[in-house]
Amino acid sequence: MIPLSVIDLREAEPFVAEVLRSGRISRGPMVERFERDFAAVTGTRHAVAVQSGFAALVATLGALDLRPGDEVLTSPLTSVATLDAIIEAGARAGFADIARDDFALDPDEAGCRITRRTRVLLPAHLFGQPADLGKHGALAAEAGVRLVEDAGQATGSPAGSSGLACFSATDCGVVTTDDAELAGRVRDEARHATLSELSAAVCLGRLMRHTTRTDARQRNAERLTDGLRGTPGLDVPKRLPGREHVWQRYTVLIGPHAMLSRDELAEALTGRGIANAVCHPRLVFDHDRYAGLVPSVSPRDFRVASQVTEEALALPVHAELTDTELDTIIEVVRDELGA
């Protein structure tokens, strides 16, 4: 089976050993080193490491002093951690449709959904490509709201350039900002979710090779795109001008005129030894657990996002793929779709 993803933790071994020899488990020099290095990678002045991407979002929203009834406007196509964090912060979730070319919150749609209650604009960078931060930044400034990036799937890209972003790494979450006072408030909000020395060691080991892995995923994505372009009924993902895609997922769209439906193709690929995933089978609010916790909205209100839940399929693009495996993925997908 060609796996969808591969995580190699051997690169973290020397850092883990250093922590074990130190005898210190709670926050210490390894966490501080990871924060410094992460800030350098993302080009920001301050990084606050916490236990998860969810904890990063909760701490960030908490640091913005949101009040009951304040709205956080986000994408309906995102992780449940995003919506859970909004609810945990005591805010109200609002949604706007996405753009089909980057799977991210559409700035034009968001502009139509901002109300007097909106306090935060929270675009999610899905599958590794940043949202249109130029347009989102202009929209936030015009509306007088705070722009926060949900960059959990975009570590290594220019995500974080807006000045306040929440990342998710292998075993941690990170908040980045250039504002020292805000970083202090985030750290205070996250005091019960601080990162351990062992987790920092694992994350630091992964961070040391992030450029190498990102370069490999970008090469793999280019090869997949070249091989799959023109396959009947299949749309390859786009790398948009001015945005660096780090390919956390290689997500194709299987349209209604394809020989197989998305789910049929997924089953066929699994049967032929190629792992794949339907990352978002439904919109984030479309779960029974959120009944009474989010505004009354319907998937029909978000046409593009709803289409993506029916058509999107993630294929392997990880850094450990061989040329033979990439060729196999291309050959099998094209064969199943009648190319």
UniProtKB/TrEMBL annotation:
- Any Pfam family hit: DegT_DnrJ_EryC1
Q: Which domain of life is it from?
A: Bacteria
Q: Which GO terms describe its biological process?
A: polysaccharide biosynthetic process
Instruction: List GO molecular-function terms, semicolon-separated.
Output: pyridoxal phosphate binding; transaminase activity
Is Transferase one of the keywords UniProt gives this record? yes
Q: Where would one find the signal peptide in this protein?
A: none
Q: Which InterPro entries match?
A: DegT/StrS_aminotransferase, PyrdxlP-dep_Trfase, PyrdxlP-dep_Trfase_major, PyrdxlP-dep_Trfase_small
Provide this UniProt record's keywords sorted from A to Z: Aminotransferase, Pyridoxal phosphate, Transferase
Is Manganese there in the keyword field? Answer: no
Q: What's this protein's family per the entry? A: Belongs to the DegT/DnrJ/EryC1 family.
This protein is called what? Aminotransferase
Q: Which organism is it from?
A: Prauserella flavalba
Provide the taxonomic classification. Answer: Bacteria, Bacillati, Actinomycetota, Actinomycetes, Pseudonocardiales
